[in-house]
Amino acid sequence: MDSLKTYSINHWLPSLQAHRGYWINGAKQNTLAAIKAAADAGYEMTEFDVRLTSDEVVILFHDDSYQNRIISQMTYSELKALTEVTTLEELFTWVAQKNNFKLNIEIKSLEIISCKLERKICELIGKHYLENRVMISSFNPLSLIKMRFFCSEVYRALLLTFENRSGPSYVRYSYFINLICKPQMINLRYQDLSDFFIKLSEKLPVVLWTVNDVSIYLKYKNTIRGIISDSITPTQLKELSHVKIN
To answer: What is the reported pTM?
Structure first.
């Protein structure tokens, strides 16, 4: 199952994803408005972040706090009274009507034992029949292990960055974690791309984040599977598809 999913993801995954929706024209990041804007701009897929409130509502939110209050200690109603916030249920209800538009859900969780967030996500995926439209990504390999257990049919991507980490020991650690959570792809900070990951990309798709410089895309477009971007649009990517760079 996992090996087949690794093979098929190359055909499933678009070469460009919007980062937290398409928000550079004024929509708030990680909201339904930004994700609708991404679809309107021609993106086939968007990445966004999810967290769990104290009353166990899955929301789109990047930071772990807002106005010096911890998100996990706030109810959905309390947070909504302070800022614009979208629930995963609201997003799924909308995206279920959007044919082939795809979602990259980044799980923001440091939990080791608790499975509440992962269970909620899987329940909502099943409720809206989005198993073939969703992938899950996380820096926390334990979240991917939980997702592998609860809904193995959904693609999994391990997020990696070497920022503030270095050396061969971390590479070995990352490889060991890969074996445990069995991701079908790697989402890598573009500054950390190395010969190791270029070689790895021959077997495991590698997507770079967050790429906003088209010259970086042109340099690596034949090496990696795709990019996640704040500003590069599908129209720009199409215009660059035949451009070569030395």
So the answer is: 0.92
